[in-house]
């Protein structure tokens, strides 16, 4: 039997993914610009096709059944792989002279990496992964990202930020995403959250950066009155930009958060502003944000919107979170701490080789 004959329609899978992500048919309907009954009918047809119940309809909202959770994971992962592949193809078309050399994991671990005196990585989870693949612990070194806390620091007055240059009133609560705009960042949740909060006139989303997904982000939010787009800012304006935020937002897809420690996190921490991030709690990123910010489960638009509204109404909580974030980064990832340790490691290796 052909694959297409066995699978549900692509439209029903897209609508199911939205309904499962939001845990709400009405929010899913807004995403597709259809009515709530249209979503409900599509889900009913999908359940009939599969012969299984996917949602439990409860007074407090929707809840995925075991079969629903299974399908949601598969659909989400499948869509993300397709998205990553499309972005890779587009990237190759834009820069055809880039050459990528690929080797198997076995070759990399047992031949290539074994010939280095040290293999460094930026996160503890990646260190564990190297050891699991057979690289001796004495051959690995944790060289984390670092931040110049003398260059990135809290400014005492919002007048010292870019707020006035951008003609943003003092009354606006700015939710800032500043960084690479690619498939792995999971920027879709920013679109859905901004859409959900369009009636909150005191909240403004500012998206700043470049990348393959920027055009899609701009197109999806072109009619949103609560979104402002900025191009990549020069280095000399970085501290001003980061201090423009009342709330920093860091979306991270579930399937990449376990190994990736985004370098932009350190600038957010150093700026002394509140941070909201999406990540699984048992990941390294999730553990950090749980200590110094507000952690949201990936793909949960309603929860993210609720947290943003609560922080917007609580300047004291934002100040506490910002101060905690600043202290945390200064104690662990300042240039004054990280670089001397790395220099010491290099000195040790050069002396050993003589």
- Give the helix level as a range of percent: 40-55%
Q: How do the SSEs run, as a string of H and E?
A: HHHHEEHHEHEEHEHEHEHEHEHHH
CATH class label of the largest domain:
Alpha Beta
Measured between the Cα atoms of the first and last residue, the distance is 67 Å
Q: Specify the number of helices.
A: 15
Any idea what the radius of gyration is? 23 Å
Profile the largest sheet: 6 strands, parallel
Textual characterization of the structure:
A hairpin with a 2-residue loop joins strand 1 and strand 2. The protein is an alpha/beta fold and 354 residues long. It has 3 domains: 3-94, Arc Repressor Mutant, subunit A (Orthogonal Bundle); 107-143, no CATH class; 158-332, 3-Layer(aba) Sandwich (Rossmann fold), CATH 3.40.50. Helix content is 49%, strand content 12%. Helix 8 packs across helix 13.
Keywords:
354 residues, alpha/beta, Arc Repressor Mutant, subunit A, Rossmann fold, 3 domains, six-stranded parallel beta sheet, two-stranded antiparallel ribbon, 49% helix, 12% strand
SSE layout and pairings?
Blueprint: H1 3-6, H2 10-22, H3 25-32, H4 36-50, E1 55-58, E2 61-64, H5 66-94, H6 105-112, E3 119-121, H7 124-132, E4 140-142, E5 173-178, H8 188-196, E6 203-208, H9 214-220, E7 227-230, H10 238-244, E8 247-250, H11 264-270, E9 274-278, H12 284-292, E10 294-296, H13 301-312, H14 315-332, H15 335-353
Parallel strand pairs: 3-4, 5-6, 5-8, 6-7, 8-9, 9-10
Antiparallel strand pairs: 1-2
Helix pairs in contact: 2-3, 2-4, 2-5, 3-4, 8-13, 11-14
């Amino acid at each position: 039997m052909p694959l297409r004959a066995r699978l549900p329609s692509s439209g029903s899978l897209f609508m199911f993914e939205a309904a499962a992500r939001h845990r709400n048919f009405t929010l899913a309907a807004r995403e597709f610009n259809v009515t709530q009954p249209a979503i409900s009918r599509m889900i009913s047809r999908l359940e009939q096709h599969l012969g299984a119940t996917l949602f439990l309809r409860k007074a407090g909202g929707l809840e995925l059944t075991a079969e629903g959770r299974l399908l949601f994971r598969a659909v989400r992962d499948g869509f993300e792989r397709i998205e990553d592949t499309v972005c890779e193809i587009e990237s190759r078309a834009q820069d055809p002279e880039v050459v990528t050399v690929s080797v198997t994991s076995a070759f990399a671990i047992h031949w290539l990496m074994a010939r280095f005196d040290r293999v460094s990585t930026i996160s503890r989870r990646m260190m564990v992964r190297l050891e699991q693949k057979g690289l001796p612990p004495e051959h690995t070194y944790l060289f984390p990202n670092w931040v110049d806390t003398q260059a990135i620091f809290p400014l005492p007055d919002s007048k010292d930020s870019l707020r006035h240059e951008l003609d943003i009133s003092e009354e606006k609560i700015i939710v800032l995403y500043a960084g690479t705009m690619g498939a792995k960042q999971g920027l879709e949740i920013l679109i859905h959250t901004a859409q959900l909060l369009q009636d909150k006139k005191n909240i403004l989303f500012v998206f700043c950066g470049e990348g393959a997904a920027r055009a899609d982000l701009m197109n999806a939010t072109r009619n949103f009155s609560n979104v402002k787009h900025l191009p990549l800012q020069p280095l000399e304006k970085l501290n001003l930009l980061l201090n423009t935020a009342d709330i920093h937002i860091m979306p991270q897809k579930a399937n990449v958060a376990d190994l990736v420690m985004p370098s932009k996190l350190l600038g957010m921490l150093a700026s002394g502003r509140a941070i909201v991030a999406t990540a699984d709690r048992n990941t390294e990123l999730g553990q950090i944000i749980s200590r110094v910010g507000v952690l949201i489960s990936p793909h949960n638009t309603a929860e993210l919107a609720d947290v943003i509204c609560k922080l917007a109404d609580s300047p004291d909580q934002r100040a506490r979170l910002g101060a905690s974030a600043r202290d945390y980064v200064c104690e662990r990832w300042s240039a004054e701490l990280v670089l001397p340790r790395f220099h010491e490691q290099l000195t040790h290796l050069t002396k050993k080789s003589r």
